[in-house]
């Protein structure tokens, strides 16, 4: 493989794809656009469970995103399929449960290497050993705000990681 001609593909995974992973997808896409990498990186998200397939993001999330200048209106929930691993470069899990489930689905060691907790890319979260993004679904609007702050901090690190990956010639 020479330099990457195909887009770099990153996906964010949570349980139902209506709170944490769409938040990750939307924030990451915006930050990549702001870093002028939007045309080189494809961002997606999905859930491990199929409960919400085809649904929009949680209304509380949509309101919060609007307040913070993001647009989540186009989001539709999807369920993750192990067959997607081959097309992906980076798989970001919201919490340890998702990480374990994804690693169990990935039969190829190369695919397992693509799977990380999203907060692994936030040095402060790593230092504090708080790597799970807790599900705000049953919580308050403040839980959604905390979740967004965690996602934004992690997304900054993900963008830096992707910049490094894109700048590194592959063997």
What features would you describe in this structure?
With 171 residues, the protein is of the alpha/beta class. Helices cover 42% and strands 12% of the residues. The protein has 6 helices and 4 strands. It has a 4-stranded parallel β-sheet with strand order 2-1-3-4, sandwiched between helices. α1 links the parallel β1 and β2. α1 (20-34) packs across α6 (141-167). The longest helix is centred in the last third of the chain and has 27 residues, at 141-167. The chain starts with 7 loop residues before the first strand and ends with a helix. The model has no long low-confidence stretch (mean pLDDT 95).
Which helices and strands occur, and which strands form pairs?
Elements: E1 8-14, H1 20-34, E2 41-47, H2 59-67, E3 90-93, H3 96-105, H4 109-112, E4 115-117, H5 123-128, H6 141-167
Parallel strand pairs: 1-2, 1-3, 3-4
Helix pairs in contact: 1-6
In short:
By secondary structure, the chain is α/β, with parallel strands linked by helices. It contains 6 helices and 4 strands, in the order E-H-E-H-E-H-H-E-H-H.
